[in-house]
Amino acid sequence: MKDILNLLEKLERAEAETRVAEIVWEDEPENELLESNFEAAYKIEYSLYVSLAGRIVAETAGQISFDTAKKMIKTQRTELKKIFQKVA
Fold first, then answer.
1. How far is CA 32 from the centre of its chain?
2. Residue 42 has pLDDT above 90, yes or no
3. Contact 75, 59 (CB under 8 A)
4. Neighbours of 68 (CB within 10 A)
5. Which H, E and C letters describe the chain, residue by residue?
6. Dihedral angle sign, alpha carbons of residues 72, 77, 82, 88
7. pLDDT in tens, 16-26
8. 8 A C-beta contact, residue 4 and residue 56
9. Which of 16, 21, 24, 62 could pair with 38 in a Cys bridge, judged by C-beta atoms 3.0 to 4.6 Å apart?
10. CA-CA distance, 17 to 2, in Å (whole number)?
């Protein structure tokens, strides 16, 4: 369960980095380097998001589907943290 909490922390850091990269890019939308930086940050964020959803499915032995896990990550993150902290 600690690996899920670890992934969740990494995802939150990646989301913050993506937000910063997006804000910087929005200031100079024609700058290809800034666009590339945003795309790279988003790629990492999405990869962590998919990995986390997969770990939730695995840890629950499929009782939570992949799509439900993705939705939970986006809409019920605080509750997810509490649950996995209790069982970690």
1. 25
2. yes
3. no
4. 14
5. CHHHHHHHHHHHHHHHHHHHHHHHHHHCCCCHHHHHHHHHHHHHHHHHHHHHHHHHHHHCCCCCCHHHHHHHHHHCHHHHHHHHHHHC
6. positive
7. 999 999 999 99
8. yes
9. 21
10. 23
